[in-house]
Amino acid sequence: MLAIIAVFLPLAAAILAGLFGRQIGDRGAQLVTCGALCASAVLSVFVFYDVAVLGHGRIIDLFTWIDTGELQVRWALRLDTLSAVMLLVVTLVSAMVHIYSVGYMAHDSSIPRFMAYLSFFTFFMLMLVTSDNFVQLFFGWEGVGLCSYLLVGFWYDRPTANAAAIKAFVVNRVGDFGFSLGIFAVFLIFGTLQFDPVFAGAADMAGNTINFLGWQVDALTVTCILLFIGAMGKSAQLGLHTWLPDAMEGPTPVSALIHAATMVTAGVFMVARLSPLFEYAPTALAVVVVIGGTTAMFAATIGMAQNDIKRVIAYSTCSQLGYMFFAAGVSAYSAAIFHLMTHAFFKALLFLGAGSVIHAMSGEQDMRKMGGIWRRVPCTYAVMWIGSLALAGIPYFSGYFSKDTIIEAAWAAGTGVGTYAYWLGVFAAFITAFYSWRLLIMTFHGSPRADHEVMHHVHESPGVMLIPLFVLAAGAVFAGAIGYEAFVGEGRAAFWRDSILVLADHDSLGRAHEGVPEIVSLLPLIAAVAGIATAYVFYMLRPALPDLVTQRIHALYLLVLNKYYFDELYDRLLVRPAMALGFGLWKQGDGATIDGLGPDGLSAVTRDLSVRASRLQTGYLYHYAFAILIGVVILVSWYLVRVVG
Amino acid sequence: MPVVSVPTILPALPEILTVCSAMALLMLGVFRGEGSTRLVSWLAVLALVLVLAVALARGGDRQIGLNGMFITDGFALFMKVLVLIGSAVSIVMAMAYNERERIARFEFPVLVLLATTGMLMMISANDLISLYIGLELQSLALYVVAAFKRDSAQSTEAGLKYFVLGALSSGMLLYGCSLVYGFAGTTNFAGLAAMFAEGNASIGLIIGIVFVSVGLAFKVSAVPFHMWTPDVYEGAPTPVTAFFSVAPKIAAMALFIRFLVEPFGALTAEWRQIIWFISVASMLLGAFAAINQRNIKRLMAYSSIGHVGYALIGLAAGTETGIQGVLIYMAIYLFMNLGTFTVILCMRRDGRMVEAIDDLSGLAKTQPALALALGIFMFSMAGIPPLAGFFSKVWVFLAAIHAGLYVLAVIGVVTSVVGAFYYIRIVKLMYFDEAKGVFDRPIGAEMQAILVVSSVVIMLFFVIPGPLLTSAELAAAALFPG
Amino acid sequence: MIIQAVCFYVFAAVAVASGVMVISARNPVHSVLFLILAFFNAAALFVLLGAEFLAMILVIVYVGAVAVLFLFVVMMLDINFVELRHGFLQYLPIGALIGFILFAELVLVIGYWALAPNIASVLAAPLPATAQVTNTQALGDLLYTRYIYAFQASGIVLLIAMIGAIVLTLRARAGVRRQDSSAQVYRPRAASVEIVKIEVGKGV
Question: What is the per-residue pLDDT across A190-231, written as a single tens digit (0 to 9) for each?
Fold first, then answer.
């Protein structure tokens, strides 16, 4: 019951704020949504305790959704440790973001709409994480996509925001196409879309083949890869990542909630949720590792060269998602979820902190026009430090526990791809630390680069924005230490129970605990410290050095600055041909051919026939008599020909 | 040798009542003079209602009377009810119109009563002779009422055209009858049925059936024997057109069905081809020719041609469900057409009738109730669910599919799409175009009543389809004993 | 028998020929006269069949009444038949073609003539033998018993024709003086005759 209320409160709040925003006013909408989300978060704590700690996992059946022939789909809330963790993280971060938004969006003209979207998003996210079947999962999946579209394009009078919203939606469609194909494949193979029977049948299906595009392929492998394509889209993995940085056009709370803490992690959650399927598809797992590892590295390098404060964090998110994926890929699902949780806290913290900075700088997002404000915004400065320390994986901050576990697990997996991921992970850790401190130093230190007017207005954010920051900061500091034992430590089996399946010979976490070489577990920390030191050298001590370096490796710098030209590549390869094709089809195909032959042509023919038919009606009696006679002759001839002929 | 006894006459009681009341009203009119028109009209309506009651009271048991020339059964009862409703409503519709057009004469209701007698006889015909006599009785009265507005050249022309072409078709029909008689040696339907029970037909007989069918197809205005329809519909006074479009069509359809199913039921495979051909031709012409029309009465002429084409689909199937489909179709068609013509009768501006389709522009703004009613009728005729017209079409299409006549069903669907264009164009004119002016008001209480009843029937058919469906089922079953 | 056959063919041929002349004669009066000739020949064919009542009815009704009425109408209405025929030739070829096809087909149908096998069982037997009763009586017997329905209905058809003719043509013209015989008969003397006593020696 608590869980039902926790899930549906945001929906009720969204409906109230969205449809009756005019009646209840800005303040009313804020109160309703924040209140609902806080209540939801408190309830989630109880649910978490009940489900994850006490082990009362259950499935709450709501009602039948679809019942046609073989396909039966029910609305149900699946409560196990995995969904309880997600429930807690989502409601907690969402509640913080809601409260923060009260301050951040104070000057906006459509507050009820914004709050309603946020709550609506939260509802879909909860739907997603508590789903008991693929269709409900897809429902939540598309729902969060829709809300993401609405929120990225929240400032719909900005063309860039609109473009970003469309881009996010379209790129996600590519992933969703794979996802839906994956769901179809699941139905094809298992004949059901409920999780339990699918998971139960996965072991028997291992090694079976199906016909895919004319090839006989391993059924589970292709299914999992298709599903993973969906995850790639939603979680902005290499190739389908291009929408995420652009999505920073949305308000900063949106970036924190959707594009850092929750929605983008849906892909990771999905892989973890479907671990019973992925475990029997080792090839698919290898693909997940490679994509995840590459993304972690690749996105981090782009992050080094960006100047927009939010874009840096966005690429950082992308990179961290890569970590989570390769963790999942080496069967360390619990480590992935663990990192998901800690990341939710420190990345939301970073985003909200960045939001606070932007708020202080009167909307400026370019780090080159910041600097020298750390004394004016001490609280923000402090929480940004905390967030960065957690992100870089400095010991005893939450990121340290989760990230190191992942990297160790990758090594411990002992596979080729695992090792690949390990080295990329270590190198990415260095870069992560580097760009984090680059961000800190460029934003807060040095001489002010903003104009006098802006500098004059720099001020600490109001309490309503700071309190969420402190809550999240606490999470960023302590979540790792608290959760370590249960999530990935010795207690993990008792904690996760059967919500995550790891085959015995895939148990990379277990092997990591048995012991890896000391250097292996120290290397990430060393890399992080080295990254921080490098950043200090480059931006604090020798400010001329970055320019020198970029000039020396100008081509490489340009490559990274322009995000490996992914957008341009897609523009050339896909967008323009698609536009040309669409335009051609519209003008030539639809306009000239289909309309010409179809509706227009048919109607012209019809009109013509009509004119002819009415011309038959001459009004002359003998014409009419003739018509009758001709009719008689036709009929008589027909029968004579049939009988005689 | 008491050949004519009361029991053999009794089945024909409704007909006898009708004709007697017609003659009594004729005498009343003659002696009371022109001033009695309204009285005679209402009495004629009363007589028709009385006949309806008598017919219903006598029930649908199969009875054969008058030396085997007359039959009454459930099928006849169903069709008679429709015809009587059609005739009675037509007389009601005509009263005010005739007075305004200064053609109010007591002969009109009398002629309608006599025509109705002919129709009832057609429906109950069980012999080629009674078939022909009933047909002529009906037709002759119709020729006269078509030319009833004798000072209008159009009306006279309509009557004359109808008369000449009707005579031609009667000739065909008679020739066909003579061929059938010549090959079979009997004119009685039961005798014919017994003779051809095994489906052993010579080509001569088939040609005979063809000729009779041509005569009947003329009466239901199926293509290519429809040529009189648009001219007569346009020329005849509007209430007469309304009458033409319902009662005679229903009666002729009943005769058509009985003639083909009762004596020649075993030859379905043979005559189906005739019906197939005229059905397809009617649907196509009804759909295409109507698009180009500017006059609403001509449009209705083509519309009725199209509807006859759809109804004939059910006959082409030749099965019990097919006939049931025709019966349902004709019943719903009756209400749609009566309603539509009531609206057309209300198209009067400054005391003069207007008949152009464009005159309906913007009706929704000036007379929303009238526009709504016409909209309902048009959507129903176009076959838009959930209105009744949709179900009538579905029924015949289903029957055709069950009988394996896929081409017929497909053509039916395609032409109803084309047909929907001109029906819905009227709705578009009424609701989206600028008003051209206001029609005269008030439209009269009896017109309002007809509009309300027919639109309610059309709209709510899908709520209570039971009575019509079951009675049509019973009626169709009467034609297929055993 | 030979004579009968010869007579049949002669009468039939003349009937068909005069039928053709009815529609092809230029002078409408001639058309009507040919129509009368056709009626006579048809009557003669009836006589050959032994149906003398029908033959006489045909002559009396059609020749005596209908055709003569036609003749009156044709002569009294000055209709320009030449103009009506305008365009006749234009449609002659197609008309002839249609007619010919239909004719050929009907001939073909006759060629395939096959009576229904069990026709004898249903053939309406003449009620009494013709030798015993006269034609008229036999017809009357049938008409008023077996076919009473059709007979009565035909009467109504004629009634409709009558009503129709009156409806479509009778006009009450204003200013027409009609003879009212009953008014004439019942006119009292006082209303029409005035007796004036004139004294002797005085004028009126």
Answer: 888 888 888 888 888 877 787 777 778 888 888 999 999 999
Q: How many residues does chain B have?
A: 482
The answer to whether A626 contacts C91, with C-beta atoms less than 8 Å apart, is yes
- Residue-number span of the structural domain to which C105 is assigned: 97-125
Chain segment A609-634, per-residue pLDDT in tens: 878 877 777 878 888 888 888 889 88
User: Do C164 and C118 sit in the same domain of this protein?
Assistant: no
Percent of chain B with pLDDT over 90: 62
Using alpha carbons only, give the angle B69, B72, B75 rounded to the nearest 5 degrees: 125
Do C112 and C138 lie in a common domain? no
**What's residue B39's pLDDT?**
92
Confidence of residue A460 (pLDDT cuts 50, 70, 90): confident
Q: Helix/strand/coil (H, E, C) string of A13-53? A: HHHHHHHCHHHHHHHHHHHHHHHHHHHHHHHHHHHHHHHHH
Cβ-in-10-Å burial (0-12, 13-18, 19+) of B346 comes to buried
What integer is the mean pLDDT of A276-304? 90
Residues of B with CB under 8 A from a CB of A: 161, 164-165, 168-169, 172, 203, 206-207, 210-211, 213-214, 218, 223-225, 227-228, 230-231, 270, 273-274, 277, 285, 288-293, 418, 421
Torsion of CA B97, B101, B102, B108, to 10 degrees: -50
> Does pLDDT of B3 surpass 60?
no
Q: Give the residues across from A61 on adjacent strands.
A: A76
Residues C1 and C25 placed together within one structural domain of the fold: yes
pTM for this entry: 0.63
Q: Is C94 on the interface with A (CB under 8 A)?
A: yes
Domain membership of residue C157 (yes or no) is yes
More confident residue, A59 or B255: B255
Please name the residue of chain B whose CA is at the shortest distance from the CA of residue A617: B227
Per-residue pLDDT band at A645 (split at 50, 70, 90): low
Mean pLDDT over the full length of chain A: 87
Contacts of A644 in chain B (CB under 8 A): 203
Q: Would you state the pLDDT for residue A436? A: 92
Q: Which of A609, A623, A638 sits opposite B288 (nearest CB)?
A: A609
Same domain? For C130 and C112 the reply is: no
Q: Identify the chains in contact with A, defined as 3+ C-beta pairs within 8 A.
A: B, C
pLDDT value at C82 more than 70 = no
Q: Are residues C120 and C133 in the same domain?
A: no
Residue numbers of the domain that contains B157? 10-477
Q: If contacts are CB pairs under 8 Å, which of residues 37-66 in chain B contact chain C?
A: 66
Residue C83 binned pLDDT confidence (cut-offs 50, 70, 90): low
Same domain, C10 and C80: yes
Compute CA distances B168 → A619, A632, B209, B469, whole Å.
17, 12, 16, 37
Picking from A616, A628, A635, the nearest residue to B218 by CB comes out as A628
pLDDT over 90 at B282, yes or no: yes
**Residue B254 located in a structural domain:** yes
Chain B residue numbers touching C110 (CB-CB < 8 A): 204
A635 shares contact with chain B (CB less than 8 Å): yes
Domain membership flag for residue B265: yes
In a domain, B5, yes or no: no
DSSP labels, A51-91: IIIS---EEEEEEEEEEETTEEEEEEEEESHHHHHHHHHHH
From CA B5, how far away is CA A627, in angstroms rounded? Answer: 46
More confidently predicted of A432 and C192: A432
Structural domains of chain B, count: 1
Domain total of chain C: 3
DSSP code for B386:
T
Examine residue B2 and state whether it is found in any structural domain, yes or no.
no
Strands (E), B252-387: 348-349, 352-353
Beta bridge partners of A218: A209
